[in-house]
Amino acid sequence: MTALADHEVHTQNRLRRALGLPTASGYLWDGHELHAPCQSCGQLPPLAPPPAPPPGQPVVDIVPDHHALRTAARIVAALVEVIDQRRPVKQVADFVHPRVLRYMHTLPVDHRGSRGGARLLTLHAAQPHEGAVEIAASVRARGRRRALAASVALTSDYVWACQTLRIL
Q: What InterPro entries does UniProt report for this protein, alphabetically (predicted)?
């Protein structure tokens, strides 16, 4: 089923008018009852106003920790350098979860030793809650632009470490 703009008329309605039948019109479901449009003007009835917000303090967004965002960006940049073979894996082992290291070992590498195959193009960091940073980035790898997703979290030792990394 396709969505139509207000000024467009569906082909089925043209045929119904030509045959003298009433045109098909949209209905409104409010969660309890199905409402038909007005017979004279075709307008849908107004819904009830939205309910009042629940009592209590409103949820406040956390204040972004710029140090955490910068640290997470540096970690992801270092991981891209590992993918490009400009940095040895041992240099990132301290701030990377072992499953990320296993994932890094499964990535295809250029055995000719040529560098410049992986390059960080864009990076967007967000902090969903305290102690975690999520990264969305784009990387040029083997001549193609790829999406990179990573999560960096504060460990029990108060060290930022990459918990997950995926190149899509």
A: DUF6459
Tell me whether residue 131 is exposed, middle or buried, using C-beta atoms within 10 angstroms of its C-beta: 0 to 12, 13 to 18, 19 or more: middle
Dihedrals phi, psi of 148, to nearest 5 degrees? -125, 130
The predicted pLDDT at position 133 comes to 96
Cβ(103)–Cβ(167) below 8 Å: no
Distances in Å between the Cα of 17 and the Cα atoms of 23, 62, 86, 116 are 7, 57, 70, 65
Other CB atoms within 10 A of residue 95 CB: 18
Q: Of 57, 100, 59, 54, whose CA–CA distance to 80 is shortest?
A: 100
Domain boundaries, the chain: 9-48, 66-167
User: What tokens does 152 get?
Assistant: 């960096």
Domain 66-167 carries which CATH code? 3.10.450
